[in-house]
Amino acid sequence: ANIFKTGWTGTNERTFIAVKPDGVQRRLVGEIILRFERKGFKLVGMKLLQASEEQLRQHYRDLREKPFYGGLIKYMSSGPIVAMVWQGLDVVKAARKMLGETNPADSLPGTIRGDYCIEVSRNVIHGSDSVESAQREISLWFNHHELFCWEECNEHWIYA
Ligand code: UDP
Ligand code: MG
């Protein structure tokens, strides 16, 4: 079975999260991982990588007509990013809430973008916007050897 395309619903839902180059430079990686861990989500894939422009053009293909697209590709390829896959119930939607709005100025305190950044073009973190986007993005950034199904001892304290 193609693990990227099938079966990831309920507590097995997965999302793609990336700490962007500014987040890595500003030493926010630990803080961001901490928030997802404390929430109860499960880390199933993670790596530090330098994104190629080709990968970024794929990743942001829906935005290619936007005026900020060129700057976005340059920003995202300006240094290493931390790519992660997090798993859990409704994790796609929950992660978007944890991130805040696209523009940090519209993001509430308590959200990652609300707490750690100011400008939309330096908003420190990416999160998939739908289950379909998550599947596409996970398969773009990870191969199946880099994703792990592991049994967590805490499961019964996180899910009833
Ligand atoms: N972005 C930008 N200027 C804008 C809108 C977006 O630089 O006016 C950047 C920003 O880094 C954002 C990314 O483009 O995170 C992708 O935009 P999208 O609308 O998908 O926002 P997201 O899903 O990241 O919240
Ligand atoms: Mg988006």
TrEMBL record:
Active site: 126 (pros-phosphohistidine intermediate)
Keywords annotated in UniProt: ATP-binding, Cell projection, Kinase, Nucleotide-binding, Signal, Transferase
Entries under InterPro entries matching the protein: NDK-like_dom, NDK-like_dom_sf, Nucleoside_diP_kinase, Nucleoside_diP_kinase_AS
Occurrences of domain Nucleoside diphosphate kinase-like (ranges): 12-149
Chief location: other
Subcellular location: Cell projection
Cofactor(s) in the UniProt record: Mg(2+)
Pfam families: NDK
Enzyme type, top EC level: transferase
Gene Ontology biological process terms, A to Z: CTP biosynthetic process; GTP biosynthetic process; UTP biosynthetic process
E.C. code: 2.7.4.6
Binding, ATP: 20, 68, 96, 102, 113, 123
PROSITE patterns per UniProt: NDPK, NDPK_LIKE
GO MF annotation terms: ATP binding; nucleoside diphosphate kinase activity
CDD domains the record matches: NDPk_I
Source domain of life: Eukaryota
Catalytic activity: a 2'-deoxyribonucleoside 5'-diphosphate + ATP = a 2'-deoxyribonucleoside 5'-triphosphate + ADP; a ribonucleoside 5'-diphosphate + ATP = a ribonucleoside 5'-triphosphate + ADP
GO cellular component labels: cell projection
Family, as annotated: Belongs to the NDK family.
Protein name (Swiss-Prot/TrEMBL): Nucleoside diphosphate kinase
Organism: Sinocyclocheilus anshuiensis
Protein's gene: LOC107689099
